[in-house]
Specification:
The chain is mainly alpha-helical. Strand 2 and strand 3 form a beta hairpin. Strands 1-3-2 form a three-stranded antiparallel β-sheet. It has two domains: about 80 residues, Arc Repressor Mutant, subunit A (Orthogonal Bundle), CATH 1.10.10; about 140 residues, GntR ligand-binding domain-like (Four Helix Bundle (Hemerythrin (Met), subunit A), Up-down Bundle). Helix content is about 75%, strand content about 5%.
Protein backbone atom coordinates (compact mmCIF):
# COMPACT_ATOMS: atom_id res chain seq x y z
CA UNK A 1 0.00 0.00 0.00
CA UNK A 2 1.34 3.42 -1.00
CA UNK A 3 1.50 6.08 1.73
CA UNK A 4 -1.28 8.65 1.58
CA UNK A 5 0.22 11.82 0.11
CA UNK A 6 -1.98 14.08 2.22
CA UNK A 7 -0.91 12.28 5.39
CA UNK A 8 2.77 12.56 4.42
CA UNK A 9 2.36 16.26 3.61
CA UNK A 10 0.69 16.82 6.98
CA UNK A 11 3.52 15.05 8.82
CA UNK A 12 6.17 17.04 6.94
CA UNK A 13 4.39 20.31 7.74
CA UNK A 14 4.18 19.47 11.46
CA UNK A 15 7.87 18.48 11.50
CA UNK A 16 8.82 21.69 9.72
CA UNK A 17 6.86 23.86 12.16
CA UNK A 18 8.33 22.02 15.13
CA UNK A 19 11.85 22.61 13.81
CA UNK A 20 11.10 26.26 13.02
CA UNK A 21 9.76 26.77 16.54
CA UNK A 22 12.85 25.17 18.06
CA UNK A 23 15.29 27.15 15.89
CA UNK A 24 13.60 30.48 16.65
CA UNK A 25 13.38 29.90 20.39
CA UNK A 26 16.91 28.51 20.66
CA UNK A 27 18.28 31.52 18.79
CA UNK A 28 16.29 33.91 21.01
CA UNK A 29 17.79 32.29 24.12
CA UNK A 30 21.34 32.15 22.74
CA UNK A 31 21.27 35.82 21.68
CA UNK A 32 19.67 36.95 24.98
CA UNK A 33 16.43 38.13 23.40
CA UNK A 34 15.00 35.78 26.02
CA UNK A 35 17.26 36.74 28.91
CA UNK A 36 18.54 34.38 31.61
CA UNK A 37 16.09 34.25 34.51
CA UNK A 38 13.13 35.48 32.44
CA UNK A 39 9.81 33.71 32.97
CA UNK A 40 7.62 33.44 29.88
CA UNK A 41 4.44 31.64 28.93
CA UNK A 42 3.72 29.19 26.17
CA UNK A 43 1.24 31.68 24.76
CA UNK A 44 3.83 34.47 24.72
CA UNK A 45 6.31 32.27 22.86
CA UNK A 46 3.62 31.32 20.35
CA UNK A 47 2.86 34.99 19.75
CA UNK A 48 6.55 35.90 19.51
CA UNK A 49 7.26 33.27 16.85
CA UNK A 50 3.85 33.34 15.14
CA UNK A 51 3.78 29.55 15.41
CA UNK A 52 0.97 27.47 16.92
CA UNK A 53 0.92 26.11 20.44
CA UNK A 54 1.55 22.43 19.58
CA UNK A 55 4.90 22.99 17.75
CA UNK A 56 5.87 25.47 20.48
CA UNK A 57 5.10 22.90 23.18
CA UNK A 58 7.28 20.32 21.41
CA UNK A 59 10.11 22.85 21.02
CA UNK A 60 9.85 23.68 24.74
CA UNK A 61 10.28 20.00 25.62
CA UNK A 62 13.42 19.82 23.47
CA UNK A 63 14.87 23.01 24.97
CA UNK A 64 14.19 21.65 28.46
CA UNK A 65 16.19 18.51 27.62
CA UNK A 66 19.05 20.78 26.55
CA UNK A 67 18.89 22.64 29.90
CA UNK A 68 18.16 25.97 28.22
CA UNK A 69 14.81 26.30 29.99
CA UNK A 70 12.97 24.86 32.97
CA UNK A 71 9.24 24.27 32.88
CA UNK A 72 7.66 25.49 36.13
CA UNK A 73 4.27 23.81 36.71
CA UNK A 74 1.51 26.40 36.97
CA UNK A 75 4.05 29.23 36.80
CA UNK A 76 5.47 29.34 33.28
CA UNK A 77 8.77 28.68 31.55
CA UNK A 78 12.04 29.83 33.11
CA UNK A 79 14.98 30.69 30.86
CA UNK A 80 18.02 29.07 32.49
CA UNK A 81 20.49 31.28 34.31
CA UNK A 82 24.12 31.29 33.17
CA UNK A 83 26.33 29.40 35.61
CA UNK A 84 30.10 29.43 35.12
CA UNK A 85 30.64 26.33 37.26
CA UNK A 86 28.05 24.48 35.19
CA UNK A 87 29.79 25.71 32.04
CA UNK A 88 33.10 24.28 33.23
CA UNK A 89 31.47 20.87 33.76
CA UNK A 90 29.98 21.15 30.28
CA UNK A 91 33.43 21.92 28.80
CA UNK A 92 34.89 18.88 30.58
CA UNK A 93 32.32 16.67 28.86
CA UNK A 94 32.35 18.53 25.57
CA UNK A 95 36.13 18.14 25.27
CA UNK A 96 35.87 14.33 25.09
CA UNK A 97 32.85 14.23 22.78
CA UNK A 98 34.14 16.95 20.45
CA UNK A 99 37.52 15.23 20.09
CA UNK A 100 35.72 12.06 19.01
CA UNK A 101 33.50 13.94 16.56
CA UNK A 102 36.38 15.85 14.97
CA UNK A 103 38.50 12.73 14.66
CA UNK A 104 35.58 10.80 13.15
CA UNK A 105 34.73 13.63 10.76
CA UNK A 106 38.34 13.71 9.52
CA UNK A 107 38.15 9.97 8.87
CA UNK A 108 34.65 9.65 7.43
CA UNK A 109 33.92 12.90 5.57
CA UNK A 110 33.22 12.44 1.87
CA UNK A 111 34.71 14.58 -0.89
CA UNK A 112 31.87 17.10 -0.88
CA UNK A 113 32.05 17.50 2.89
CA UNK A 114 35.83 17.97 2.77
CA UNK A 115 35.32 20.76 0.25
CA UNK A 116 32.83 22.37 2.63
CA UNK A 117 35.31 22.14 5.51
CA UNK A 118 37.98 23.77 3.31
CA UNK A 119 35.57 26.59 2.43
CA UNK A 120 34.74 27.11 6.11
CA UNK A 121 38.44 27.25 6.98
CA UNK A 122 38.79 30.11 4.51
CA UNK A 123 35.67 31.84 5.86
CA UNK A 124 36.91 31.59 9.45
CA UNK A 125 40.21 33.15 8.38
CA UNK A 126 38.39 36.05 6.69
CA UNK A 127 36.17 36.55 9.73
CA UNK A 128 39.25 36.65 11.95
CA UNK A 129 40.88 39.27 9.71
CA UNK A 130 37.71 41.39 9.66
CA UNK A 131 36.66 40.65 13.27
CA UNK A 132 33.21 39.91 11.86
CA UNK A 133 31.22 38.45 14.76
CA UNK A 134 27.92 38.06 12.90
CA UNK A 135 29.49 36.06 10.08
CA UNK A 136 31.50 34.02 12.56
CA UNK A 137 28.35 32.93 14.44
CA UNK A 138 26.77 31.75 11.18
CA UNK A 139 29.93 29.93 10.07
CA UNK A 140 30.35 28.36 13.50
CA UNK A 141 26.83 26.95 13.44
CA UNK A 142 27.35 25.56 9.92
CA UNK A 143 30.68 24.06 11.01
CA UNK A 144 29.11 22.36 14.03
CA UNK A 145 26.35 20.84 11.91
CA UNK A 146 28.82 19.68 9.26
CA UNK A 147 31.02 18.02 11.91
CA UNK A 148 28.04 16.09 13.28
CA UNK A 149 27.00 15.00 9.79
CA UNK A 150 30.49 13.97 8.69
CA UNK A 151 31.26 12.09 11.92
CA UNK A 152 28.38 9.68 11.25
CA UNK A 153 27.96 8.71 14.89
CA UNK A 154 24.42 9.23 16.13
CA UNK A 155 25.37 8.66 19.78
CA UNK A 156 28.09 11.30 19.78
CA UNK A 157 25.74 13.61 17.86
CA UNK A 158 23.02 13.18 20.49
CA UNK A 159 25.43 13.99 23.30
CA UNK A 160 26.81 17.06 21.53
CA UNK A 161 23.40 18.47 20.69
CA UNK A 162 22.56 18.49 24.40
CA UNK A 163 25.50 20.85 24.95
CA UNK A 164 25.46 23.11 21.92
CA UNK A 165 22.85 25.64 23.04
CA UNK A 166 24.43 26.32 26.42
CA UNK A 167 27.87 26.57 24.81
CA UNK A 168 26.71 29.00 22.12
CA UNK A 169 24.88 31.21 24.62
CA UNK A 170 27.89 31.48 26.94
CA UNK A 171 30.14 32.24 23.98
CA UNK A 172 27.74 34.86 22.61
CA UNK A 173 27.44 36.63 25.96
CA UNK A 174 31.05 36.50 27.13
CA UNK A 175 33.30 36.00 24.12
CA UNK A 176 31.76 37.21 20.90
CA UNK A 177 32.43 40.91 21.24
CA UNK A 178 35.87 40.70 22.87
CA UNK A 179 39.25 41.23 21.27
CA UNK A 180 39.73 37.44 21.36
CA UNK A 181 37.32 36.78 18.47
CA UNK A 182 40.08 36.74 15.79
CA UNK A 183 42.05 34.26 17.91
CA UNK A 184 39.17 31.78 18.33
CA UNK A 185 38.15 32.22 14.67
CA UNK A 186 41.66 31.24 13.57
CA UNK A 187 41.53 28.20 15.83
CA UNK A 188 38.30 27.21 14.09
CA UNK A 189 40.02 27.71 10.74
CA UNK A 190 42.85 25.39 11.77
CA UNK A 191 40.42 22.70 12.94
CA UNK A 192 38.33 22.92 9.76
CA UNK A 193 41.51 22.63 7.68
CA UNK A 194 42.67 19.52 9.59
CA UNK A 195 39.32 17.82 9.00
CA UNK A 196 39.31 18.82 5.31
CA UNK A 197 42.74 17.20 4.97
CA UNK A 198 41.57 14.00 6.66
CA UNK A 199 44.23 14.29 9.37
CA UNK A 200 42.61 12.57 12.38
CA UNK A 201 45.41 13.18 14.89
CA UNK A 202 45.79 16.83 13.93
CA UNK A 203 42.01 17.33 14.12
CA UNK A 204 41.90 15.81 17.61
CA UNK A 205 44.84 17.96 18.76
CA UNK A 206 43.31 21.09 17.25
CA UNK A 207 40.02 20.33 19.00
CA UNK A 208 41.83 20.03 22.33
CA UNK A 209 43.69 23.30 21.74
CA UNK A 210 40.44 25.12 21.02
CA UNK A 211 38.78 23.69 24.15
CA UNK A 212 41.85 24.71 26.18
CA UNK A 213 41.28 28.30 25.08
CA UNK A 214 37.56 28.16 25.79
CA UNK A 215 38.17 26.68 29.24
CA UNK A 216 40.80 29.32 30.08
CA UNK A 217 38.44 32.08 29.01
CA UNK A 218 35.58 30.57 31.01
CA UNK A 219 37.72 30.35 34.16
CA UNK A 220 38.79 33.95 33.65
CA UNK A 221 35.15 35.06 33.86
CA UNK A 222 35.12 33.92 37.49
CA UNK A 223 37.36 36.88 38.27
CA UNK A 224 35.30 39.48 36.42
Amino acid sequence: MQPNKKVLASIEKKTSLREQAYQQLEEAIVTMELAPGMVVSEQALSEMTQIGRTPIREAIQRLARENLITVLPQRGILVAEMDVQQQLKLIETRREVERLICRSAARRANAMERAQFARLAQEFTEEADQCDSARFMRSDKEFNELCLKAARNEFAEGAMRLMQGLSRRFFYHNYLHTDDLPFIARQHADLAHCIAQGNEEAAAASSDTMLDSIEAFTRATLDT
